[in-house]
Write a structure and sequence with these properties.
By secondary structure, the protein is of the alpha+beta class. The chain is flat and about 100 Å long. The protein is built from 14 helices and twelve strands. The strands form two sheets. Strands 4-10-9-8-5-6-7-11-12 form a nine-stranded mixed β-sheet, sandwiched between helices. A three-stranded antiparallel β-sheet has the order 1-3-2. It folds into three domains: 3-82, Winged helix-like DNA-binding domain superfamily/Winged helix DNA-binding domain (Arc Repressor Mutant, subunit A, Orthogonal Bundle), CATH 1.10.10.10; 120-270, Endonuclease Chain A (Endonuclease, Chain A), CATH 3.30.870.10; 280-335, Arc Repressor Mutant, subunit A (Orthogonal Bundle), CATH 1.10.10.10.
Length: 338
């Protein structure tokens, strides 16, 4: 937790151990943390030199020293005072790094000696492809657009899910179009449901022409091999250009035609296709059900049998991909059935 502020793991261990005590000696903290006493003493001296801890006065400790030389006891400097400068320093360092990144990126793009390289680069090898994939996902600041097709080759699904979770935690607008065969893998339904619950927007199509990830409409990555042919995985990374614009346009076209997926209590369901709409008779049944009328009274008012009402209700739930009548009502309102 505090390593991002420049503290090592052992320093953080001692610091957090002291957090729960008014004062403590190196001997006390060594017993609590399992570190050697000499190492604990060295860490405390280092924390003291950085203003994170201070030597406590004897009156503060409330513990009388044994005979002999006094034993130093330490207390925390208030974290709001001691850690604030470290936080500011890290923020400033990050801002400087972002400025340098922007300058280097623009300089690279404007280099006349490499016009083709500024538009497209080829990445070869499992590690290199996986590294560039994570760079694109973790470097996104606004939006990620993804095509999912078949089984992963260079990037294991667990690693891709971790990058996905990181992007969702940062509030990235994350939209995915998946080919229906992508959902055939083990435990994919559960993982997809969790992602949708976390904010992922996912739509389903019968097939897609390629795998792809687009980051902030600034960069895209497309594998060069769609199937595991035995060759080393490779991909192209496309920077801002007419080709990138075409890839974004392709995504938006597939997105507009795809069927949305939404989470249910047990997994995910697809919205029905456009030609699968409820009949007028089914909507009559639904209107009465949503008004709180029982199945028996619906059958009586419409001159139907109970079995017909139940059959029409079941078909409506199948069309909506709903597991309950409450979900059916929500879908009917969302899909504009009335």
């Amino acid at each position: 937790m505090l390593q991002a502020l420049g503290l090592g793991l052992a320093e953080e261990t001692v610091y957090t151990a002291l957090l729960a005590r008014p004062t403590a000696s190196a001997h006390d903290l060594a017993r609590q943390t399992g570190l050697d006493e000499p190492e604990t003493t060295r860490i405390l001296l280092g924390l003291s030199s950085r203003g994170l801890v201070a030597v406590a006065a004897e009156a503060e400790s409330g513990v009388p020293d044994p005979p002999g030389p006094p034993t130093p006891r330490y207390r925390l400097t208030p974290p709001s005072v001691a850690l604030a400068p470290l936080l500011v320093e890290q923020r400033n360092a990050l801002q400087r790094a972002e400025t340098a990144f922007s300058m280097l990126t623009e300089q690279y793009r404007s280099t006349a000696a490499h016009p083709a390289g500024s538009v497209m680069e080829v990445v070869v090898g499992v590690e290199q492809v996986a590294h560039r994939f994570h760079q694109l996902q973790r470097g996104a600041q606004r939006e990620l657009l993804v095509f999912l097709v078949g089984d992963p080759i260079a990037v294991p699904r667990a690693d891709a899910d971790a990058s996905e979770s990181s992007a969702l935690d940062r509030g990235i607008d994350f939209r995915v179009v998946a080919a229906k065969d992508y959902l055939d893998g083990p435990d994919v339904g559960r993982d997809v449901r969790e992602a949708i619950m976390a904010g992922l927007e996912l739509r389903l199509v019968d097939s897609l022409p390629l795998k792809m990830v687009v980051s902030d409409r600034e960069r895209a990555m497309v594998p060069l091999d769609m199937a595991d042919s035995g060759d080393e995985p490779s991909a192209i990374v496309v920077h801002r250009s007419g080709l990138l614009t075409a890839l974004v346009h392709l995504f938006e076209k597939e997105w507009a035609q795809a069927r949305p997926l939404y989470a249910t209590a047990t997994g995910v369901r697809a919205e029905p296709a456009g030609d699968q709409q409820p009949t007028e008779g089914e909507l009559e049944v639904l209107a009465l059900l949503l008004a709180g009328v029982s199945d028996r009274r619906v059958a009586s008012q419409l001159g139907l049998s109970i079995r017909t009402v139940e059959r029409r209700t079941r078909r409506l739930m199948d069309l909506a991909g709903a597991d309950s009548r409450l979900q059916l009502g929500w879908h009917a309102a969302r899909a504009g059935w009335f």
